[in-house]
Amino acid sequence: MATRSDALTSSTGLSYRRAGHGAPLVLVHGYLGGSMQWQAEIDRFAGRFDVIAPDLPGFAGSAALPPADRIASFAAAVVDLLDELGLTRITLLGHSMGGMIVQELAANHPERIARLILYGTGPLGAMPDRFELLETSRERIRTEGVARTIQRIGATWFRDGAAAKGFDIVAALGALASERAALAGLDAMSHWDGRSALVRLTMPTLVLWGDGDQSYRWPQVEMLWQGLPNAALAVIPGTAHAVHLEKPNLFHVVLEDFIMTARTSPAESAVRGHS
Fold first, then answer.
1. Fewer C-beta within 10 Å: the chain N or C terminus?
2. Are strands 15-20 and 49-54 parallel, antiparallel or unpaired?
């Protein structure tokens, strides 16, 4: 098994990180993100779980791959990686745009998802209450470039803005994406609507949200919480869109409580008991 610092590459060229042993835990980053943003989670959970964190096509370590312009295409890339690694039953977490991706994946492959964590996300890609319209972000990427855009957008993901601990990794990862990939990601979100699929996501699901999130406001979060058949809600006070970087210890405790107490199948219990 790879150590936590290893960056691996799939047969399709997708970059990913993998560490640990036990039941699989897959972490999917969001817009202009990357697998390295999950280092604290890899460190925390690799002792009990097989943690896998991909770099989505067009972003971070997968920046050389053709970018995806639809959420379904991103989800297909994650499924290809799961298939290659032989992972048939997983706990799946998605952050921000990654939350849309995992909703799409779970709706099409519900039998593969033991538990679902929808973190800082919603069921509507257009995000009508976002800090700025997606079209505004699109225009500013074209005029200002990706590096300046992630500095500006990334600052809204933290209560303390650009001064926050964790901002530097967000800015560095985002700057690795090309303009084409950044624009394609916005297109993917603007064309996606997962509201009709919520009733099909019957697996135990945690909806996790920072109370100061400017990207996904409460109406989006409430739609998830109320629309999912088997959902729990965790609101983290004093945080924004990057809870895992702002209050990592609290983030980890909430995740552990959900992952360890959500109902498991006999097969999963056996895997955990012998890992």
1. N
2. antiparallel
